[in-house]
Write the structure tokens for this entry.
Amino acid sequence: VFHGTAPLLYTESLNHELQQWVERLRNGDPRSLARAISTVENGEADSSELLKCLFPHTGHARILGMTGAPGAGKSTLVDQLAKHYRKQNQTIGIIAVDPTSPYSGGAILGDRIRMQDHFADPGIYIRSMATRGSLGGLARTTADVTTVLDASGRDLIMIETVGVGQDEVDIVRLADITVVILVPGMGDDVQTIKAGIMEIADIFVINKCDREGAERVEREIRAMQSLAVRSDNWTPPIVKTVASEGQGIADLATTIGQYEAYLKKENLVLKRNVENWRERLVEMLRDAMLEKARAAMTEGEMGRYAAEIAEHKRDPYSLVEEIVGRVAGET
Ligand SMILES: Nc1nc2c(ncn2[C@@H]2O[C@H](COP(=O)(O)OP(=O)(O)OP(=O)(O)O)[C@@H](O)[C@H]2O)c(=O)[nH]1
Ligand SMILES: [Mg+2]
């Protein structure tokens, strides 16, 4: 008897519940925010419905990516910047994407201790993530958490990530502004940071300038910059800091402001967003297609196909065509 009507009612009440959740989150309710973040982090069943409801409310926050080698002082800088921007009454979200062991334990603990100052301040929300190898990948999870924080009305979102691999390059691609943090005395200095990370720097910070060798790092960055001209003609400035002493933080904030003004003046904000979305759409499509293809067959079938191909009883090209056809014909 209920065929047809029951699912509809169910969907409606679910939507109503979602809308209320989103409403509370946008009104600054910390529990709704925390619940939304866990939902997308764990890729729970209602996570994509939630993200659909949240997306129209995003686009307000400025997203700042902070990346650099382990121990470069990223958390200390984020912490100091948070203090700086809080004085201007900006609300802040911080996502600390932790490296795998051996750093993660220490980093999380370190972050907790240092960021304790802010825990009483509802204007700062801090989330540490150690989700490498999780379903959907680190970059996607970070993007989804960023969406939640943005929709919650935060003015500024800072994403801290260790600059080592493709995941990190994908993560900083989320950012409107990317700050790459270097320190003196890293041996080969600039060379130890992956070329890909160097290329995405909008601003360089040389932290720990209380140590020897800051000038050398600066020379190396300048030498590297002379070889490559960016398509937006911006020459990434170099800011020197001693984050642990709060030195250079105001300078860094000013430089961030200058780059933002440059992006606005040159009409680059939308252009950059379009570029980022082009990449992210391809990734989202690839994930969704693959998920569908995986759902279309069992592990047993997959193993059988692999065996048949290995034994040359079947060719992989027609098989892939067949599976893609099967998945595409579904909708
Ligand atoms: N001497 C000196 N030490 C600093 C400076 N900034 C940070 N530190 C110290 O460097 C250590 C690492 O700082 P973090 O802020 O945890 O570095 P991080 O880049 O977040 O580290 P991971 O998240 O583990 O990659 C801490 O002991 C800081 O107190 C600085 O400017 N000078
Ligand atoms: Mg850190």
Remarks:
- The chain has 13 helices and seven strands.
- The two ends are 27 Å apart (CA to CA).
- The longest strand covers residues 62-68.
- The pocket of guanosine-5'-triphosphate (ligand 1) is lined by residues 68, 70-76, 99, 103, 107, 110, 162, 207-208, 210, 242-244 (CB under 6 Å).
